Automatic annotation (TrEMBL):
Keyword Nucleotide-binding among record annotations: no
A biological process term (GO) from this entry: mismatch repair
GO cellular component, one term: mismatch repair complex
Origin superkingdom: Bacteria
Protein's name in the database: DNA mismatch repair protein MutL
Gene of this entry: mutL
The keyword Nucleotidyltransferase is assigned to this record: no
Function recorded in the entry: This protein is involved in the repair of mismatches in DNA. It is required for dam-dependent methyl-directed DNA mismatch repair. May act as a 'molecular matchmaker', a protein that promotes the formation of a stable complex between two or more DNA-binding proteins in an ATP-dependent manner without itself being part of a final effector complex.
Similarity-based family: Belongs to the DNA mismatch repair MutL/HexB family.
Domain MutL C-terminal dimerisation: from-to ranges: 456-595
Alphabetic keyword roster: DNA damage, DNA repair, Endonuclease, Hydrolase, Nuclease
Molecular-function annotations in GO: ATP binding; ATP hydrolysis activity; ATP-dependent DNA damage sensor activity; endonuclease activity; mismatched DNA binding
Domain Histidine kinase/HSP90-like ATPase, residue spans: 20-131
Classification via InterPro entries: DNA_mismatch_repair_CS, DNA_mismatch_repair_MutL, DNA_mismatch_S5_2-like, HATPase_C_sf, HATPase_dom, MutL/Mlh/PMS, MutL/Mlh/Pms-like, MutL_C
Lineage, highest ranks first: Bacteria, Bacillati, Bacillota, Clostridia, Eubacteriales
Amino acid sequence: MARKVKMLDEITINQIAAGEVIQGPYSVIKELVENAIDAHATKIFVEIKNGGKSYIRITDNGMGIDPEDIEMVFERHSTSKINEIEDLDSLNTLGFRGEALASIASVSQIEVTSKTKGKDTGISLELSGGEILSKKEVSATQGTTIIIRNLFFNTPARRKFMKSVKAETTKINEVITRLAISKSDISFRYVNNNNLMFTTPGDNNLSKVLLSIFPKDLYQNMIYLPPTEEIPYKISGFISQPMYGRGNRNLEIFFVNNRLVKSQSLSKALEKAYENKLMIHRFPICVLNIEVPPGEIDVNIHPSKTEVKFYEEKKVENFLMDRITEVLTKGTKIVHPNIQQAHSDNERRPIVSPQRENVDISNKHQPNMGLSSKVDLPNDQGGTVYTREPTGKDLKPRTPITYKNSSTSSSSLEGRLNNKLQQDQKQNEEEVQESILAVKEDHLPFSIDPTQGFHILGQVFQSYILFESQKTLFLVDQHAAHERILFDQLYEDAKEKRIIRQRLLKPESIRLSPEDYSLFEDHHKTFEEAGFTIESFGKDTLIIREVPLALGRPKDSSFIIDIIDAIRERKSTEDEKTLVIQKACKNAIKANRKFSQVEIQELLYKLQKTTPPLHCPHGRPILLKLEERELAKFFKRIT
């Protein structure tokens, strides 16, 4: 009887392993560049075509591969970097598993040429699908050149699931820029479809590398961290000024012992150091290398070698957080608002305080009565009404006074009277709260008709519009209202393809990192449909020539980066064009601006035409309402 269980052949094993090691062209480039770094190269040249799908070439001037070893390097688990498991405790190379070349060779067509120091000639080897086609001596310079063609040519399922050329290029850009940053003592040259993307000098100057790769304004907003002398850890690199962040974590770049890693613990420590220093929904930028004794980290977590575990993770986190906090405190000029204490969205200033006695107006005794609660109505009710948000703590009455000795009639009477007062107070407060929370509208809950009692009371903190209408007091967040009005207008115009554009007298230009530039090119049509005319200029610069008329002149060109970040983080259910319009509207609104009576009236007129629910495109509430009856009940003018 034939056996059902059998050994797989070596090529099949390698193709299966390639599914884990080689996730796409960017994985190939990462593995090959890391090999070049381990070979002590001082110059590395990377060239790709068609997102690396059809052509990848890596050339270095490293030590080269001996002719005797040229075939062995394509065998699974062959390596010159470790001899036994204990060597992982003192690892000082990026590679060590001996899987990458065998995996790459099994799913592509490879040509490798290499020459070692002192040899008269080099050696060339050609493989296809893991099988050797030819081997010969050739004339060559010291180092190694590897050319990869037709990745996944023999695994149609893997090839089918590769992303678009532009998407794969974006991933490659990210990998190459980070590898170049990690080794400022190596000169990198990167060419994409015959276009030079960037070069780095290789003079061990990280500042020059960052200037070669990233926009100038990003570099100018970075703070340098010189290497620390602490034992056992050292940290060096750059972090962003607190007022300069991104819309996602894409530029939180960490290296551990010069190895590019992804680490939630390091991100958490970084963001903890920036806590209360960055605007909400913004993330810091960093390029940091943390030196840790090799025996205190485990890099053998995943074949990609981008995940690490620290032996003392909490200690590393605290070290990183303390160092960044120290630098931010000493090396930055923090811009503070002109008030004693800034309040977060969850700690907004109260409008009223429900405390009954011994009122202390200091902040520490004021209840948290934020302005941003909302009551979600059923679909058939057609809207959302926003109210103030008394917490359960605010509404909790003081504990009633009780008396153990009830034989004394005066004490008994006092106790009953106090209990009655407490119950009445609690009932009043609960009725007011119920009145606020039970508001349901099938239309916008205000009128700007003077015959309906409409009257503008003014502007508060140059941020909120105060008015009364139909015996109700209203507060409007002018920024959120303006943003919503603008969004509705642009969205409808884009939907009907009737956006009116304005040509900028002085076009705005912006330089992007290679990965941002690639992502923009991939989504250029979306910007066009949203009303922007943006042209590519050179290999990394955009020229903004036209914007939607409704937006006015952009404050600056940085909003393009915010839009690119939003597209990068976009969920599959989000409409891309809507996302672009949202971000553009947010950029167009000027916060904390004094409005004239005419401007306020015009804003409210347009807001009244908005379809409920009343919130800005990003979900923030626009309107707070408080009826006259609610105020009267609170102040006990009625029962």
